[in-house]
Amino acid sequence: MNNNQIERHYDLDWIKVFAMLLVFLYHCSMFFNSFEWHIKNNIINSSIEFFSLLIGNWIMPIFFVISGIATFHALKKRNTQSYIRERLLRLGIPLILGIFLLSPPQVYIERIANNQYEGTYFQFYPHYFDGLYLEIGGTGNFAFFGHHLWYLLALLLFSLLTLPFFLKPRENAGEKVFGYFHYLFMPIPLIVSALTTNTIVNLGGGGLVFYFILYVYGYYFFTRGNLREFIRRVGIFAGFLSVLSMAGYIFLVMYNGFPMSLSLNWAIFIVIRVIMVWNVVFYILFLGDKFLNVSNGVLKYTSEAAMPFYVLHQPIIIIIGFFIYNLEWDVFVKAAFLVSIAFTIIMILYHFIIRRFNVLRVLFGLRRIDKEVSL
Description:
This protein is mainly alpha-helical. The chain has helices spanning about 5-10, 10-30, 45-55, 60-75, 80-115, 120-125, 150-165, 180-185, 185-195, 210-220, 225-255, 265-290, 295-325, 330-350, 360-365. About 70% of the residues lie in helices and about 0% in strands. The chain starts with a helix and ends in a 12-residue tail after the last helix.
């Protein structure tokens, strides 16, 4: 493997692609598990819920760490104005699309499925602006955060808030060392944030402060020159701790449920979750460095498809779910149908429509092209 490949970080691109696919599967699983979601199947399945628990806590932290790393490299290539413009275009425009076009059908279906509204979608749309949507099952409708696109809103805010600090020269970043001190003690602020703020705002298994810390870590610490060498040393150990902490977490949830806050059991539960997240991040980076630091046509195609796929996936899952949630099908037949049909629709929309037209490319967070994309 040559130095150019390492510098380009192809493995991080692959990790984002696979993580996006897991987010899709996770949201498909939400249709069948016992957790609160916009619409539920008529039968809940514990096996599918196990899958939800398996990936639900660490999948978004991966995105924020990699986003912090990507910000570091973006600021090495762009000036302030170019960076802000790029963030607003590639995060802000898809977010606006989600708020005004993709979130309303999700809210409508939730209201219909929970007997909170009667009428057609077009009759409902003016009511979409009645009150703020703050929680599933609430009374407000306006999803100002774009439902699943809250990640884009958080990343946009993080990018702008940290910019004055991130603009400091980083020429010596590659000379800084990542060592066992960082590996052992950097989880402490994450534990503190999880114990103190996750009860206020919880999104995708973590709080905004929790994700902000991971984003900053990605920028300041996961870009250090010896990080890959360090990950190669601790990767297997991190994998062992990942399995151990994940087993403990799933056991606690499956047999005792989620513990109530402000108790010793809850505090222990939070610590186990953070240890799991921290070590899974290292193990995934270890696996990526070992197996995925290569580029090919599949990576180029899927890397570009990732953002439109993310923007489209949840509303399409919910719309399909609305048509099948009361059907008396076997759960796994229904799950296979939901996954395959939703994936097919998303990829058809991307491959044949979105990627070919600049207006749609901009709406879905892609760069403009100078000539038509071939089929």
